[in-house]
Amino acid sequence: MKLQQLIYLIAIADNNLSITKAAEKLFTSQPGISKQLRLLESELETKIFIRNGKQLVGVSELGEEIINRARKVLHEINHIKNISNLANESESGNFSIATTQTQAQYALPKVFANFHKRYPQLTIDLQQGTSEQILSQLQKQEVDFAIASGNIELGANIVKIPCFQWDRTVLFPQDHPLGDLRKITLEDLAKYPIVTYPSMGPAEKSSLKDAFNKVKLEPNIVFTARDADVIKTYVRNGFGIGIVASMAFSPKQDRDLLGYSTKDILPRCTTWLAFNKNMFLKKYMKDFINDFAPHISKEQLSRYLHQDYTSSLQLANSIEKNEDDASLPMHQMWHI
């Protein structure tokens, strides 16, 4: 099997099964393409195309699979050709990351402080949005990386790496009745209006609502906002108790509020980093992953990069489901 035969095969498929048009596009002869197609089918001992006389009129079932795999081979060959050019590029330009407000404000500043010292010529473009907006940007390849939280399906073309876990914190004013309790339960929280993050849409399940539903309670969510500081503002203005990421609460800066960890009553959340699986990771991208999640070894990163989608999804799920797994630490262990 020759590479040129695969190129001819794809050209035929992309030109309405016309060998003549394929030859014109490739600036070669029709007899030459026909000959190589016959040799390929002979080697594979199968008919890739359905024929009516000498005319190609369709693609066999097995031919569809062969063409799809040939596309992947040519795609990888193009990546191999580009690797040396990309690797030798000056470590400058634009590094784009889409993330949520919480990650941008509370998880990333210290990471970027160290990262920027090593790559001062690199322009960092940090874009904020909802999980669904971030996913859309990633799938359209409008950004290099996406960083978000939640159990959301990313698709077969995306590599998803769970990075760390975090708990939520319940916030309320100093004189709130919850402050008199030694231990707060879901039953206690259900008695009060709640201000928290919005559900991210049908693609993501709300672990907050699920936790209440499991004990046959319904949270009284009266106000939602994507910005943790906005949530705190509305808690201060009497809209209700707040539920935010623990990293968004500072006892020093938020002295007028009390914070209570929900680690015993609500499930932990997982923050993940994702990128298009066909993207070549430059050195600075790998260094950023190491800064953001230093517990992920080179071997683990390699497993994510080189396994097929099913295997990498199983790997991610195995980490996410084991909340006590030492390989997936809590956020505060190194970032704060």
From TrEMBL:
InterPro entries: CysB_PBP2, LysR_HTH_N, LysR_subst-bd, WH-like_DNA-bd_sf, WH_DNA-bd_sf
Segments forming domain HTH lysR-type: 1-59
Keywords: DNA-binding, Transcription, Transcription regulation
Pfam families in alphabetical order: HTH_1 (PF00126), LysR_substrate (PF03466)
Entry similarity comment: Belongs to the LysR transcriptional regulatory family.
PANTHER family: HTH-TYPE TRANSCRIPTIONAL REGULATOR (PTHR30126), HTH-TYPE TRANSCRIPTIONAL REGULATOR CYSB-RELATED (PTHR30126:SF6)
Name recorded for this polypeptide: HTH-type transcriptional regulator CysB
Organism: Kangiella japonica
